[in-house]
Amino acid sequence: MSNPVTAVPPAPAAEVAARYARRLAFETDCADVHAAFAQGDPAQGGPAVGAVGFVLLDVRGPALYAKGHVPFALNLPRGKMTPRRMAEWPAGTLFVVYCAGPHCNGADKAALHLAELGVSVKVMIGGITGWVDEGFELAEW
């Protein structure tokens, strides 16, 4: 029986596995970030790093950040991501960036910018919208 789902056969399992393994190298999600923070206190070892192994960056403007942001996230809009600023963290630091949500490409632009600076980066898909949709609390500044 053919329908819109089955009309095109699925890719071989090995190709599917390779695609999604590769995709996870570029992104993480709100639940994984929340779980990482629940496992370790980001306040130990520096600004939002230490036990969790990454720095979470809210790339929205300061006014939106002040209204509500993911706990432990630092506010660093893309325009402030200079080589000098990023050098404040040890080489090899992983940065996880997020913006408002699926309707916003600020996190993608920030990830591109950081990658062009030679920095390790992933995008937290969903952004603030995804965080709230998961039922997680926001912090205010």
Automatic annotation (TrEMBL):
List each copy of the Rhodanese domain by range: 50-140
Gene3D superfamilies given in the database record? Rhodanese-like domain
Q: Name one Pfam family in it.
A: Rhodanese
Source taxon at top rank: Bacteria
Name-wise, this protein is: Rhodanese domain-containing protein
